[in-house]
Amino acid sequence: MKNAHLYETHVKTKNLEEAITFYQKLELELAYVIPDRVAFFWLGDSKRKEQMLGVWKVSSDEFVKSHFAFQVTFEELVNTPKYLAEKGIEVVPSFGLDASEPVVHAWMPAASYYFVDNDGNSLEYITVLNDEPIPELGAIHLSTWTKAQENR
């Protein structure tokens, strides 16, 4: 199934109503709710029904934080801090780097900003860069990546 695409992913929440509010702030379209149990959101164009996110209510004992990433364009990534700030959401440090600019995962390469939902699940906006990987650089700020590309 090499050509399979991820259709659906799930995260857990301790408060479904707060989670619904949070994900709607990110402009995800609410697809369906089973009250006090789960909310499903369409990712991307809801008419195409290509991807969805499920947010499941669980007890504190069952709760485990998780992570997933939204793919965005480079322009959207650059605007992420402003976009999230307008919604009362902060970008957070990642991989030991502050959130002053995107973090590049040099092995891919891809640039990212990280943030958390109301339950502390790790979320990411990511864009794949059209450069050759330099894995030995690890995780670095975008400005450092740009300088490394200029010096190649």
From TrEMBL:
<dbReference type="InterPro" id="IPR029068">
    <property type="entry name" value="Glyas_Bleomycin-R_OHBP_Dase"/>
</dbReference>
<dbReference type="Pfam" id="PF00903">
    <property type="entry name" value="Glyoxalase"/>
</dbReference>
<protein>
    <submittedName>
        <fullName>VOC family protein</fullName>
    </submittedName>
</protein>
<feature type="domain" description="VOC">
    <location>
        <begin position="5"/>
        <end position="128"/>
    </location>
</feature>
<dbReference type="InterPro" id="IPR004360">
    <property type="entry name" value="Glyas_Fos-R_dOase_dom"/>
</dbReference>
<dbReference type="InterPro" id="IPR037523">
    <property type="entry name" value="VOC_core"/>
</dbReference>
